[in-house]
Write a structure and sequence with these properties.
Helices cover 30% and strands 25% of the residues. With 484 residues, it is α+β, with helices and mostly antiparallel strands. The protein folds into three domains: 154 residues, FAD/NAD(P)-binding domain; 209 residues, D-Amino Acid Oxidase, Chain A, domain 2 (2-Layer Sandwich), CATH 3.30.9.10; 95 residues, Alpha-glycerophosphate oxidase, cap domain (Helicase, Ruva Protein, domain 3, Orthogonal Bundle). Helix 1 packs parallel to helix 4 and helix 1 packs across helix 7. The two termini are 34 Å apart.
Length: 484
């Protein structure tokens, strides 16, 4: 018997499983596809307070998110790192003094910060102004953080497993009912498990699980909001990001991505289809190209797009008239005995706090449960200083002299201090086995299958890494054949 069964292997489900397992509970997590296979790998890849949420007076959410930036930066410095963002000012924005006041709040609302504060920028003379059109002469530069979103979910699941949780991917919950005071959960592999509590963290499928799997009517309306992104060849030569305000009131980011590319996003529009079929539309791609083109000297052509992706955010329906105004805050609904906890909304930045709140609601059902513990705990591979990735990469290269600078950097950004454990006793590049493309070797693929639940080429090339940007179609096919 399990204490807790969690449906959904996105960031919220994996975060809850990790927290619960670390408190001593027996945990099962089931995911119908791959970990982070939907919304949690389709974000803008930011750990941020949500500057625009101040406009909607969501001060609690912003404060919580700003505080979490540094918790996650210290817990996972291999997959989370600081970024600087430039906000060009123009007549269409709020007055200069008002934006400066908002950024002052943003700098201080989350408490003490190790990140640099806001500065004013003369875009005519600063290098960050070079890619911008001449009419943008001044702006602001502030701090937020980057995250490899899919790897975050995998590391949460890995840490949960390290604490005793059982993780089953490619396993769907088909039916769950209460029998003799406990949950009996039927799974798509034909097995059945018994659990004292059930968590529905199915993301865009949360209402579907309630109605079709559990036989309930969804107590909270979910608003599905689609966000699409495009990736293009690198648009500028520096590592600073841009945040652009569009004429329709939405914002758009342009972020340096995987060394040679720029990530542009996101859109916000209501979505009514099957979440598993979501895709970026041509209209959304045109919208993003135009949004960036209004600011940059060099416009983006359709042919410049090398990848596009889309995800559906399951937001609590708070009645907002526009999709971009719908709250990103989370709602946890607890009902029944034995308990059923359903998760609505949320964002990657606050997943850890959401998990703590979930466990606070469930704690009374588990006398003697351990205390909250994740605020100061490193994720696997993250046991080094928040600004020490360069030193870890240099040490890895000294140990494995056959690694190039780029390969050592990539491995540390993926595995942190576990990169050496993955490389093992290799003394030459040939010891790592076949190279499938880029610098992805048979040794690394074996590690991802054995330790990170990767099964397919897509799992490896687009979620465990972003090497899909560098693989040819023939190399993708060869990896797929090797995986069987």
């Amino acid at each position: 018997m399990f204490d807790l069964a969690v449906i959904g292997g996105g960031v919220n489900g994996a975060g809850i499983a990790r927290d619960a397992a670390g408190r001593g509970l027996r945990v099962l997590l089931v995911e119908q596809g791959d970990l982070a296979g939907a919304t949690s790998s389709a974000s803008t890849k930011l750990i941020h307070g949500g500057l625009r949420y101040l406009e909607f007076y969501e001060f609690r959410l912003v404060r919580e998110a700003l505080a979490e930036r540094e918790v996650l930066l210290r817990a996972a410095p291999h997959i989370v790192w600081p970024l600087r963002f430039v906000l060009p000012h123009h007549r269409g924005l709020r007055p200069w003094w008002m934006i400066r006041l908002g950024l002052f709040l943003y700098d201080h609302l989350g408490g003490g910060s190790i990140l640099p504060h806001t500065r004013s920028v003369d875009l005519r003379n600063d290098p960050v102004g070079a890619p911008l059109r001449a009419e943008y002469t001044r702006g602001f530069e502030y701090s937020d953080c980057w995250v490899d979103d899919a790897r975050l979910v995998v590391l949460l699941a890995r840490d949960a497993a390290n604490h005793g949780a059982e993780i089953r991917t490619r396993t769907r919950c088909t039916h769950a009912r209460v029998v003799d005071g406990v949950w009996h959960v039927a799974l798509s592999d034909g097995s059945e498990c018994v659990a004292r509590a059930l968590v529905n963290a199915a993301g865009p499928w949360v209402s579907q699980v309630l109605s079709e799997v559990l036989g309930h009517n969804a107590p909270t309306r979910v608003r599905l909001v689609k966000g699409s992104h495009i990736v293009v060849r690198r648009l500028f030569d520096h590592d600073t990001c841009y945040i652009f305000q569009n004429r329709d009131g939405r914002i758009c980011f342009a972020i340096p991505y995987e060394r040679d590319f720029t990530l542009v996003g996101t859109t916000d529009e209501d979505y009514a289809g099957d979440p598993s079929q979501v895709a970026a539309s041509a209209a959304e791609e045109d919208y993003l190209r135009a949004a960036v083109g209004a600011y940059l000297r060099r416009p983006i052509a359709a042919a410049d797009i090398v990848w596009r992706y889309a995800g559906v955010r399951p937001l609590r329906d708070d009645g907002a008239s526009k999709a971009q105004e719908a709250t990103r805050d989370y709602v946890l609904e607890l009902e029944g005995t034995p308990p059923l906890l359903s998760v609505f909304g949320g964002k990657i930045t606050t997943h850890r706090r959401l998990a703590e709140a979930a466990m606070a609601k469930l704690a009374r059902y588990f006398p003697g449960i351990g205390r909250a513990w994740t605020a100061t705990a490193a994720l696997p591979g993250g046991d080094f200083s928040w600004d020490g990735a360069g030193e870890v990469a240099a040490a890895l290269q000294r140990r494995y002299g056959f690694l190039t600078d780029a390969a050592a950097h990539r491995l540390v950004r993926a595995y942190g201090t576990l990169a050496g454990e993955m490389l093992g006793d290799a003394r030459a590049i040939g010891d790592l086995g076949r190279c499938f493309g880029a610098d992805l070797t048979e040794r690394e693929v074996g590690w991802l299958r054995a330790r990170e639940w990767a099964c397919t080429a897509e799992d490896i090339l687009w979620r465990r890494s972003k090497l899909g940007l560098r693989f040819s179609p023939d190399e993708v096919s060869a990896l797929a054949r090797w995986l069987g």
